[in-house]
Amino acid sequence: LKAADLTMACEALRHPSCLLESLRLGNCGLTAAGCQDLASALISSQSLTHLCLSSNSLGSEGVNLLCRAMKFPNCELQRLIMYHSLNECDLDVAGCGFLAFALMGNKHLTHLSLSRNPVADDGVNLLCEVLMEPSCHLQDLELVKCHLTAACCKKLSRVVARSKQLKSLDLAVNALGDDGVVALCEGLKHRRASLRRLGLEACGLTSGCCEALASALLCSPRLTSLNLMQNHFSPGGMMKLCPAFAHPTSPMWLGVGMPACPSAALRGP
């Protein structure tokens, strides 16, 4: 997409008669230079609620421009998707700082996808500080393959325990390990936890975390979907999970995959 074309499109978005609600600009070769026009459109548009900028190297400068626009009270954006289809992108820790700033007090943004960006533990820690604030309205956070480890899970656990808004958290393809999930389980057991969906696919889990998971599932007041596919559970580990899943009041959807057996999607009674 040429710069002149993007400028024309943004001019149309700013027009009061434009009713466009969803704009997908994935893999369009956008850079920070084009974000100035997009930022202006976000501030002026009264209809745009969904924006996908996947697979564009916006850089910290571009993300900063967009985040400043999102701070305006008349910005109606609800869903922002910035995952990268490759293993490299410019949204890093600095970009997370700008996003945290934008989320603070934003009443409209409810869905944020940062998958396949090198957010890392430090970036997630910045986001967590805002996610714990009552003024943050984010409901769905996707952090698939973001170079995360167990080091960020204590902060995420506090978010799960405190946030009344966050309903879905996808942490798939991150090296959280058993220690990270045990830490997350502490948040899930909190009576105020509002999380309904948790993605832990391919997170390097073993049977060592199954007891903590089972306890969290029995205590969690609202969790209904748990993805554990492509982890390394033994039959003994699965047996520890079964009592929680088979509980008469369990509404749980459970996705499980083990190296020695096919993936399975199971539902509670």
From TrEMBL:
Its Gene Ontology cellular component terms are:
cell cortex; cytosol; mitochondrion; nucleus; subcortical maternal complex
Q: Which Pfam families match?
A: LRR_6 (PF13516)
| InterPro entries, per the entry | Leu-rich_rpt, LRR_dom_sf, NLRP_innate_immun_reg
What is the top-level taxon of the source organism?
Eukaryota
What's the source species for this entry?
Answer: Ursus maritimus
**What is the protein name for this chain?**
Uncharacterized protein
GO BP field: regulation of inflammatory response
